Amino acid sequence: MDDWIDYYDSTHTIYVSNRHRDVHFAEIARDIIGYIPSPGAVVLDYSCGEALSAPTVAEACGKLILAEPAPGVRGRLIARYALNTKIRVRSLDDLRTMPEGSVDLVVMNSVAQYMTPAELDQAFAVIRRLLSPPGGLVLGDILRPEVGMPRDVLALLMMARRHGFLTDALWGLARTALSDYRELRTKIGLQRYSESEMLAKLAAAGFTARRAEHNIGHNPWRMTFVARKAE
């Protein structure tokens, strides 16, 4: 995961325009809010990235913890949300010292593809310890083995058409083809799981899980799983 952390800590071009960036974060915030169990819930966004719509999520819960491994991104989050009393920024290492059972909902969205299977298992162990007895894990944007980059491109173009940035998306795709992201994705690859593989992985980590009807975010060809601590 270290190479991907370095990439996202750099000045990257994964968004084709400001409109793309804003729509992306707004859609994710909307979907996360749908899983928040109560207005007083403590929510943890695991490897949250820039989290530009975090205030929207924070309004729907009691406390929002943004856990981010990239130090540069984490610094920007601290500065951006310093005055928001409902948002706290943490490193992934900080999560290991948080009290057991102190979180009601953990969201890990579009993260698993950048982790080795062993790293994901370690993350599941930390998350399971943090979850309160009725708490849940939402694991979003899981890549499937049979679905490749063309579907990712199509999903982006569909979103761009809906939200009025199709021309920017076409230019952005051309830039991405020559970018460090494409090079890194080709060199390292992304982790992919079938539905049965991810359900088995969650079960081995001590969760009972099901696949959600809809994926978090804009890509309908990826998967989201909803899990709870197994008895």
Automatic annotation (TrEMBL):
<dbReference type="GO" id="GO:0008168">
    <property type="term" value="F:methyltransferase activity"/>
</dbReference>
<dbReference type="InterPro" id="IPR029063">
    <property type="entry name" value="SAM-dependent_MTases_sf"/>
</dbReference>
<keyword id="KW-0808">Transferase</keyword>
<keyword id="KW-0489">Methyltransferase</keyword>
<dbReference type="GO" id="GO:0032259">
    <property type="term" value="P:methylation"/>
</dbReference>
<dbReference type="Pfam" id="PF13649">
    <property type="entry name" value="Methyltransf_25"/>
</dbReference>
<dbReference type="InterPro" id="IPR041698">
    <property type="entry name" value="Methyltransf_25"/>
</dbReference>
<feature type="domain" description="Methyltransferase">
    <location>
        <begin position="43"/>
        <end position="135"/>
    </location>
</feature>
<protein>
    <submittedName>
        <fullName>Methyltransferase family protein</fullName>
    </submittedName>
</protein>
